[in-house]
Amino acid sequence: MPRTKNAIIRYLALDRCLRNHQRRFYLQDLIDACNKALAEVNGTRGVKGAEGVQRRQIFDDLNFMEDPLGYNVTIDRIKDGRKTYYRYAAGSKTIKDLPIRQEEVDMLHDAIMLFKRFDGVPQFDWLSEVESRLYTTSKLGEDTDSVVSFQHNPYLKGMKWYKSIFDMIVNKRVVEVEYHPFGKEARKVRVSPYYLKQYNNRWFLIGKHDGCTYLSNYAIDRIDNITETTDAYQGLPAGFDFDEYFSDVVGVSVTSGPVEEIELHVNDKTIGYVVTKPLHESQCARPEKLKDGKWKVTLKAQVNYELLSLIRSFGDGIEVVSPASLRMDMKGMVESMVKLYE
């Protein structure tokens, strides 16, 4: 019998009531306890009556808790005049006393394997501890190998700053960042931090530094130090949407340039990769077959460093046709590469 999140919240709320023999819990008390628990977890106000948990639902929940296929507990229904109150029978197990089922352990393990994609992110260090406990309290350790691998970079520098940055974003604190770009001198800049974004196995802080009207990105692996300040925090405009902000670019570099229609000619060996993993969300759904055997692919995006790198990664599998400025940039890079091998 499947159990949803809300059902489990109700069972735990009922369990707390039924274990308390110092108070009599009547049906309305159980309804109120479930509504309150649901409100606390789901972030909405608990309500009674037609908009909240119904009497029928409580009866069904109590029956499920007593069912051998449920929690297999024993609940007393004790008459008190014309009313009835509920509590665990003497000697009955409670939900808290029951061992976790292997089916539930397997589901938890599957969920943890999914969350393991956050390996290296300080906020998720607790996952390793949970996984270790599951291995020592269940049969997970018996010939159980990982069958899923998510891409991540365990050697990425600067991840020690992740939690500090995360906290500063949540608490709206200005930070002084000592930033060391590649090939340049380190500099200090005060930033109102807004967002953390991952691209190509690297994490970037998106924020606005003093006196600027535009957003900047700072690679976490290029940060040497972070210090909280007491400067006034510059908030974002109401309704600002980072998904929309990044919608016209590949990666994290939003430029002041226009969004351009980019035409690419892709050969047969490469078209499958481009179709199954689009270069950008604006990529045309159906490539057009050309007379020379290549495929015409179009997209609308800003030209930035990440787009150039992505196209370059396909080598001679992709030819830039337009715009002319992008074609010349690609041609210049190819000519420079040829000189390296002459």
Summary?
The protein is an alpha+beta fold and 342 residues long. It has helices at 5-19, 27-42, 55-66, 102-115, 126-137, 162-171, 242-245, 268-276, 305-312, 324-341, and strands spanning 25-26, 75-80, 83-88, 175-179, 187-199, 202-209, 216-219, 223-228, 260-266, 288-289, 295-301, 318-322. It has four domains: 5-97, Arc Repressor Mutant, subunit A, CATH 1.10.10; 102-141, no CATH class; 159-245, SH3 type barrels, CATH 2.30.30; 260-341, Alpha-Beta Plaits (2-Layer Sandwich), CATH 3.30.70.
* Tally of discrete structural domains: 4
Q: How much of the sequence is in beta strands?
A: 15-25%
Helix count equals: 10
Mean pLDDT across the residues is: 83
Coarse morphology? elongated
Largest pleated sheet:
5 strands, antiparallel
The rounded Rg comes to 29 Å
Distance between the termini: 69 Å
Helix content: 25-40%
The CATH architecture of the largest domain comes to: Orthogonal Bundle
Class per helix and strand makeup: alpha+beta
Q: Record the strand order, biggest sheet.
A: 7-6-5-4-8
Would you kindly provide a written description of the structure presented here, covering whatever features stand out?
The protein has 342 residues and is α+β, with helices and mostly antiparallel strands. It folds into four domains: 93 residues, Orthogonal Bundle (Arc Repressor Mutant, subunit A), CATH 1.10.10; 40 residues, no CATH class; 87 residues, Roll (SH3 type barrels), CATH 2.30.30; 82 residues, Alpha-Beta Plaits (2-Layer Sandwich), CATH 3.30.70. It is 35% helix and 21% strand. The protein is built from ten helices and twelve strands. Strands 7-6-5-4-8 form a five-stranded antiparallel sheet. The protein has a four-stranded antiparallel sheet with strand order 10-11-9-12. A hairpin with a 7-residue loop joins β4 and β5. α1 crosses α2 and α4 runs antiparallel to α5. About 2% of the residues have low confidence.
